[in-house]
């Protein structure tokens, strides 16, 4: 037994496997979230939370291997944090658009945008829940409803005109009624 594995409980080769496993799981998670869409990050039901806990358990075992040690845990965690930071740096580059989702317009004024709901993988009942959560009592109170890149749903009320700068990344912003947006 080497000094490394005797003192740390992990050999250099095992440490490399932890790094490769963590990188592989991170990449798979990234691809699956991109495939599932922003909706996968939106508010979760109790069942969704239970599934996430189960995923965490499975992912932990995959990353750490059969005999997890403190050293393997630290290496796996450090690898995940390093990948997270790398992704953040890449988001700021010219090609960073691939790493971040665009907002999706779900409602423009009183009109529910079916194409937006389909794209966001949201059903009307979920939209209505978000409207009620925002204190909306009538569709006439709505200026915009947007699924944000974070998975959150933003509900903007009528009253104040919307600054066009706030709409710049929304792909179909031309469907927003002009009387709701500041001229500019």
Automatic annotation (TrEMBL):
<keyword id="KW-1133">Transmembrane helix</keyword>
<feature type="transmembrane region" description="Helical">
    <location>
        <begin position="15"/>
        <end position="34"/>
    </location>
</feature>
<dbReference type="InterPro" id="IPR023090">
    <property type="entry name" value="UPF0702_alpha/beta_dom_sf"/>
</dbReference>
<dbReference type="Pfam" id="PF04239">
    <property type="entry name" value="DUF421"/>
</dbReference>
<dbReference type="GO" id="GO:0005886">
    <property type="term" value="C:plasma membrane"/>
</dbReference>
<comment type="similarity">
    <text>Belongs to the UPF0702 family.</text>
</comment>
<dbReference type="InterPro" id="IPR007353">
    <property type="entry name" value="DUF421"/>
</dbReference>
<keyword id="KW-0472">Membrane</keyword>
<protein>
    <submittedName>
        <fullName>DUF421 domain-containing protein</fullName>
    </submittedName>
</protein>
<keyword id="KW-0812">Transmembrane</keyword>
<feature type="domain" description="YetF C-terminal">
    <location>
        <begin position="98"/>
        <end position="181"/>
    </location>
</feature>
<keyword id="KW-1003">Cell membrane</keyword>
<feature type="transmembrane region" description="Helical">
    <location>
        <begin position="70"/>
        <end position="90"/>
    </location>
</feature>
């Amino acid at each position: 037994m080497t000094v490394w594995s005797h003192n740390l409980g992990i050999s250099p080769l095992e440490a490399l496997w932890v790094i490769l496993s963590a990188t592989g799981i991170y990449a798979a998670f990234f691809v699956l979230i991109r495939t599932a869409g922003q909706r996968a990050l939106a508010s979760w039901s109790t069942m969704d939370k239970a599934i996430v806990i189960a995923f965490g358990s499975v992912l932990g075992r995959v990353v750490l291997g059969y005999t997890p040690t403190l050293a393997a845990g630290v290496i796996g965690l450090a690898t995940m944090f390093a990948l997270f930071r790398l992704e953040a740096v890449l988001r700021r580059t010219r090609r960073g658009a691939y790493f971040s989702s665009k907002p999706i317009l779900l409602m423009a004024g009183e009109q529910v945008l079916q194409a937006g709901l389909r794209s966001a993988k949201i059903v009307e009942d979920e939209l209505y829940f978000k409207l009620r959560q925002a204190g909306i009592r009538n569709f006439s109170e709505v200026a915009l409803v947007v699924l944000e890149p974070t998975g959150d749903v933003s509900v903007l009320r009528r009253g104040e005109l919307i600054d066009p700068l706030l709409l710049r990344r929304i792909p179909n912003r031309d469907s927003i009624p002009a009387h709701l947006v500041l001229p500019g």
